[in-house]
Each structure stands twice: as structure tokens, then as C-alpha cells.
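Q: what sequence does this backbone want?
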């Protein structure tokens, strides 16, 4: 497969992933409230998510440069799937773990795009 075709497929794949996340994010807050979490717990979840994402941003970019963007995108998808699996629980500690894992996944995807 040519380099140009691979680049096109990679860009298309990332566009679909980012679009899915962008569509899910506004609904997430309502979903967590409907699961029974308080506004404070949802706020803590979001803080953990964005904190983990910010802290993981630089290392994930370096990792993408080291082992390759394709591998990081695949790892990001795996991390996101695991994080989303923890999201549908009513236990607060699992919600926090979900925030950590999906935050790292977000940074990994972002780090692989540069």
C-alpha cells in the first residue's frame, strides 16, 4: 500500500474516532447523572479525565514518535474501550478509574495525530 493511501486511511480513521468522541461527550454528563452520580462526582470524574489527559499528552507524543503512530492509535482504542467499560458502573472508584484510563486514551490519540 502506498504511503499516500496509508496517510489517507489513517486520517479517515482518526476523523471517525474524533467524531464519535465529540458526539458522545455532551451526552456523557447527562448519562452519569442518570446513573445516579451527583454533580460533584461528575465534576471529579471530569477533573480526573482532563488531568490524566493533560499529564499524558507529552509522553504519548514521544511514545508515538518512538513506536509509531499506528500502534498508539490501536492502544488508544483499547484504552478507551476499557475505560468506557468501567463507565457504566455505579461504583465511584470505577468511575475514577474510567476517567484515568479514558484520559490517557485521549492523550494517546492526540499525541499520535502530530
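A:
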Amino acid at each position: 500500500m502506498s504511503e499516500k493511501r496509508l496517510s489517507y486511511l489513517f486520517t479517515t480513521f482518526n476523523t471517525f474516532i474524533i467524531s464519535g468522541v465529540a458526539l458522545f461527550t455532551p451526552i456523557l454528563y447527562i448519562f452519569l447523572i442518570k446513573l445516579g452520580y451527583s454533580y460533584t462526582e461528575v465534576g471529579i470524574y471530569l477533573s480526573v479525565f482532563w488531568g490524566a489527559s493533560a499529564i499524558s499528552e507529552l509522553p504519548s507524543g514521544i511514545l508515538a514518535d518512538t513506536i509509531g503512530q499506528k500502534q498508539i492509535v490501536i492502544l488508544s482504542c483499547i484504552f478507551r474501550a476499557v475505560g468506557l467499560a468501567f463507565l457504566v458502573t455505579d461504583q465511584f472508584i470505577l468511575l475514577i478509574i474510567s476517567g484515568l484510563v479514558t484520559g490517557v486514551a485521549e492523550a494517546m490519540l492526540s499525541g499520535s495525530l502530530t
